[in-house]
Design brief:
This protein is α/β, with parallel strands linked by helices and 212 residues long. Helices cover 41% and strands 21% of the residues. The protein has a seven-stranded mixed β-sheet with strand order 3-2-1-4-5-7-6, with helices on both faces. 38% of the residues are buried.
Length: 212
């Protein structure tokens, strides 16, 4: 997505964030060199933010909607304890095959399970399970549906992080279905009494919500 800050400031933020390991650099290079829509991959700053959130809240069970090539799942899994687990969901077997290769190469691959298929169906199959952290980064038109499905699965004190919630500024003048999907989602979260939230300007916007 288009950055809302200058290239110089984005570079400054990047340079003052803990560096990524070599496996992430190679994953980024393959994503940008071989996959469509590589900008969907989270970057070094957001990846580090996700890992640190896992560590700060002591998450042991994570649910991710939207795997893509696996950078975000790999980042979060690296922050899990030895007995932690992460379920990541996607529709695309091509991009998740790339993700699986890097998961298997990493020290954290045995903590990550990929589930292929529509996210709504996967969520229905997970009904009754409990998670400490949920990361939403799938189709924006369905963010509201995903929200309503995952909040009951979240433990009290658990966290939802939703990506792209500034949508390159389109939230200020929504036109496309995806624009309206994000606008409706942000409004729903802000008005939901089950959570407290803050909308962060990390990368393309991250909605940070904590279940009461």
């Amino acid at each position: 997505m288009e950055s809302l800050i200058s290239e110089q400031l984005a570079q400054y933020i990047h340079d003052h964030t803990t560096p990524e390991d070599a496996i992430y650099q190679r994953l980024r290079e393959e994503t940008y060199g071989q996959l469509q829509d590589p900008q969907m991959q989270v970057g070094r700053v957001e990846g580090r933010f996700l890992k640190m959130m896992v560590q700060v809240i002591g998450a042991g069970r994570i649910l991710e909607l939207g795997t893509f090539s696996g950078y975000s799942a790999l980042s979060m899994a690296s922050g899990l304890p030895a007995d932690g687990m992460l379920i990541t969901c996607d529709m695309d077997p091509e991009v998740t095959a790339v993700a699986r290769r890097y998961f298997d190469e990493s020290p954290w691959g045995d903590k990550i399970e990929i589930r292929l298929g529509p996210a709504i169906e996967t969520l229905a199959n997970l009904e009754g399970e409990e998670f400490d952290l949920v990361f939403l980064d799938a189709d924006k038109e369905n963010y509201c549906k995903y929200w309503q499905a995952v909040i009951p699965m979240l433990r009290p004190g658990g966290v939802v992080l939703a990506d792209n919630t500034l949508w390159s500024g389109a939230v200020l003048d929504p036109k496309e279905d995806s624009d309206h999907g994000i606008v409706n989602f942000n409004k729903m979260v802000a008005e939901d009494p089950r959570v407290e939230n803050v909308l962060l300007s990390v990368r393309d916007g991250v909605m940070f919500a904590r279940k009461r």
